[in-house]
């Protein structure tokens, strides 16, 4: 090779101040023997170009012979893509949107959810990524997004085919994951999409019970507000206090967790009394 490998990484840095000249230099670098698979440290040049979100740099590499199949795990490039335009260019170049079935890694959808890259996720889903794929932790993208509180990611997944009740390997649904984090917005989106309000965790806890039992680092007032909001949303969506058949009632659980004077305890006790009233049983 008649070029200095490190020069290509210097060119990527130059792109931030003078993209036109950086493009000319990168073209020259390739013409003099440079290769997109050249490695500096632990990083291949093509990976550096993608990570830098330099679409034209990737175009230059493609024109000079790079093909995604040159990489042992080409899906990795889509995991590195920081933007929609970069993800779109990579899919056009035949980078696979789903992971290698032999290894299940790397998974572009999982990375897009974790890094909150909505535009990248949209590109992946519109180019054939499986919205219900099993992730490295055994869960699915919607469960992962719900757990992280990524409300826009949740909406995107639901809009493009994610199963609203598809959970992780231990049976926790996306709704239960959102409730465990006291995430009101994600809970609302999932309920609007038809999430099963009577689903139970592997330990038998219903959505109503998870609302009361989940620990949180939130300030008490904020936590109380969220618990009441979620509890009422669940009741309005059809969750039944009567079908929660554990020995300790929900009202007793609330009293044990928060004390008798807590607004959560008082509200849950009131809802329980209403559910037990003769009027409610005849409705």
From TrEMBL:
Source organism of this protein record: Chitiniphilus eburneus
Listed Pfam families: Ank_2 (PF12796)
Top-rank taxon, per record: Bacteria
Protein name: Ankyrin repeat domain-containing protein
InterPro entries linked: Ankyrin_rpt, Ankyrin_rpt-contain_sf
UniProtKB keywords: ANK repeat, Repeat
Ranges for the ANK repeats: 137-169, 170-202
Repeat recorded as keyword: yes
